[in-house]
Amino acid sequence: MSMLQVRCLAILIAGLFLSSCVVTQQDLQMQRDLLELKRRLGEAERAVKEMQDDTSGGVRAHVETLAGNQADFQAELELLRRLRENPPDVFVGIDAPDFNLGLEIKLRRAGIRTAHYVSPTVWAWREGRAAKIGAAADLVLCLFPFEPPFYRNHAVPAAYVGHPLADQIEEDRDPAAARLRLGLDRAAGTVALLPGSRTGEIGRLAEPMIRAAARLAQRRPGMQFVCAAADAAAKDLFGRELQRIGGVDIHVVRSDPRTVIAAADCVLCASGTATLETLLVNRPLVMTYRVAPSTYRIGRLFNLVKLEWFSLPNILAGRGLVPELIQDEATPENLAQAVEAWLDDDAARAALKQAFSELHENLRCDAADRAAAAVARGSLGGAAPSRALGADPVRQRALLRHVARRQQPNDDGPLLDVSGWSP
């Protein structure tokens, strides 16, 4: 009986773990195939960052290092050669558009159908990129409900599948328990600081956040502050800024942002995925962001950013649920006052809590299953991929569900690893 062979290619590029699954028909045991796929995607789950939702375009900063790296270019060519020689029924590129879209275009030219999981933020800036995405992907699997209408306007097939974080993160109703896990005073009022993960972000946001915390500490004795650092480098950079500025005690925690958010009465955070995580954990937040002054002036001059709102809670709600303090407005005093506004207004906090719960439910729709179903339905154009997946729809869904899983960060892997994959 003809069964499935599943081989998963895992590539780690400048801190991004890209996962694409190659599916062909071979005489192997289905159970073994699924276990192997689950194992490899489990490795990816510890390795890919959810980075998409940041209008600052942070993915580029990680992937641009490919430009001058001949070894990585040769590795991409080798991957392309292998896929052409032994073509998959569908190639699913997960996130990392600077790498995956170019590869997907080449694969489509070779007659291989493609899906791109996680839309780039073309709805926020550089809208013209939609044409490249349409050339790259037979189907775009979108995390947010406002993305498919955008793609329809550009004649690009797209499906809303929900956000994996909404499935993974539960609303946390016990800040005292989170404070205990972090070694904080469980009864003290707590403000969390999330200054971002990249060096540039932290360099621009650490000082106003620390000075805002110092103001709050002076005005509200007994308040405690905790900062979430993405990694050792981020912790070191924020720590140096804290030592230079002084005036306040801030407990810095590495690699545990959700517990930091859960411990807080209010979160002061950079634009990006942190605002979504804060929504899902359900805490009041103040969003802030600064870019290089020249970048900001160019963006304003050429109207490169097409958004009324910049934080994901406001974009999803279509209204100003949370304060956004950007560029010149991101002063220590403005940040401190915005935090105090949440702390002092019980009714506003209750209304926000309800709004965040509703947004969470809208995003929670079993993203992996819906992404798998979108591919299994044959939404990629032409014949459905079921010819290679067998006649059993349960088998189709079980396999593609694993392919569609969203991954998490890890910086421990090699720059480029194609071990364990062969045509």
Provide a descriptive summary of the structure in words.
With 423 residues, this protein is α/β, with parallel strands linked by helices. The protein is built from 19 helices and twelve strands. The strands form three sheets. It has a six-stranded parallel β-sheet with strand order 9-8-7-10-11-12, with helices on both faces. The chain has a four-stranded parallel β-sheet with strand order 3-4-5-6, with helices on both faces. It has a two-stranded antiparallel ribbon with strand order 1-2. Helix 1 runs parallel beside helix 19, helix 9 (199-219) crosses helix 10 (232-245) and helix 17 (367-376) crosses helix 19 (393-403). The protein starts with a strand and ends in a 20-residue tail after the last helix. 45% of the residues are buried. Mean pLDDT is 76; it is low at 1-68, 379-397 and 402-423.
Mean of pLDDT: 76
Radius of gyration: 22 Å
Q: Major sheet: order of its strands? A: 9-8-7-10-11-12
Number of strands: 12
Low-confidence parts lasting 5 or more residues at pLDDT below 50?
A: 1-68, 379-397, 402-423
User: Shape, please?
Assistant: elongated
Q: Briefly note the structural class of the backbone.
A: alpha/beta
User: What is the first-to-last residue Cα distance?
Assistant: 21 Å
Q: Helicity, in percent? A: 40-55%
Biggest sheet details: 6 strands, parallel
Continuous helix count: 19
Strand content: 15-25%
